[in-house]
Amino acid sequence: MKKHTLLFSVIAALLFCIPAIAQEPVVPSSNPEALFTDPNPQLNAEKQVALHIERDLLEANHWELADQYLTARYIQHNPMVQSGRAPVVKFFTAMRKPTPIPEHMKTPVVAVLANGDLVIVVTARTLKDPNDPSKTYTTSWFDMWRIKDGKADEHWDAATLQARPAAAQTAAAPSK
């Protein structure tokens, strides 16, 4: 029941983050790595998996390390990427080259929450104002992972369908 309450709370909070005229900026932590720790050893270990996914895989694009942090079956609820570790790796490696893994992550992390086997990472995003492209605004993004046996086994985020570059379309196409 706690998992459902946490998930509902996060989704409700995100729904209320709809851009408004007097929106307050979303401010990331000055020490994001500290948010990936917990006094509970199990939750700390799960947050560390999320840290490596965020920093090593998503930020630095070192997908050769994916088997350390993602299960082979990795269930993907993002409509842009097929489930399974191999298709996820193929999708991301088709779009970006690896960069050095930073000592301190650059991802603008706002909060990291862990409950049971779920870890939620909230990050700040800066987007162009669709009503005035010369302006930007900040909003929140979330990624949530279910951790199983020390690896992410399932993933949710707020992604929607959008046009993909040709290389990414090929990478995301189901194998036959």
Task: Give the overall shape, derived from the CA principal axes.
Answer: globular
One letter per element, helices H and strands E, the order comes to HHHEHEEEEH
Kindly report the spatial arrangement of strands forming the biggest sheet.
1-5-4-3-2
Q: What is the percent of helical residues? A: 25-40%
Q: Helices and strands: which structural class?
A: alpha+beta
**Major β-sheet profile:** 5 strands, mixed
Beta-strand residue percentage: 25-35%
Per-chain topology:
Layout: H1 2-15, H2 41-59, H3 66-69, E1 70-76, H4 85-95, E2 109-115, E3 118-129, E4 132-148, E5 151-157, H5 166-172
Parallel strand pairs: 1-5
Antiparallel strand pairs: 2-3, 3-4, 4-5
Helix pairs in contact: 4-5
In short:
It contains 5 helices and 5 strands, in the order H-H-H-E-H-E-E-E-E-H. The chain is an alpha+beta fold and 176 residues long.
